[in-house]
Amino acid sequence: MASPEELKALCFDDRGGLKTKPECRSALINHLILDEMMDVMEAEDVTEKTLRDLNLWPVEEKPKDGSPLP
């Protein structure tokens, strides 16, 4: 299976810029299914774990008073 560094590299474009989270997720799933021969469910599980571990897109917290984010 691909190393964490190889999977992380799929989240960056040719110029080194960070892809959007959906683009990265798609690239990871495609790689795992096509190149690593994983089934879809396993590829999705590995992708979700990888995205959490990479933490490239911090989750914005909601304000404590319950108002929407600006």
What does this structure look like?
With 70 residues, this protein is mostly helical. It has one domain (4-54). It contains 3 helices and no strands. The longest helix has 15 residues, at 40-54. The N and C termini lie far apart (41 Å).
List the helices and strands and how they pair.
Blueprint: H1 4-9, H2 21-34, H3 40-54
Helix pairs in contact: 2-3
Structural class designation? mainly alpha
In total, the number of domains comes to 1
Intertermini distance:
41 Å
Q: Determine the oligomeric state from the structure.
A: single chain
Percent of residues in beta strands: under 5%
The overall strand count is: 0
Instruction: Quickly count the helices.
Output: 3
**Shape type:** globular
Kindly report the average pLDDT value.
90
Work out the radius of gyration: 15 Å
Order of helices and strands: HHH
Sketch the major β-sheet. none
* Low-confidence region ranges: none
Percent helix, as a range, is 40-55%
What's a quick, concise take on this entry?
It is built from 3 helices and no strands.
Features:
3 helices; 70 residues; mainly alpha
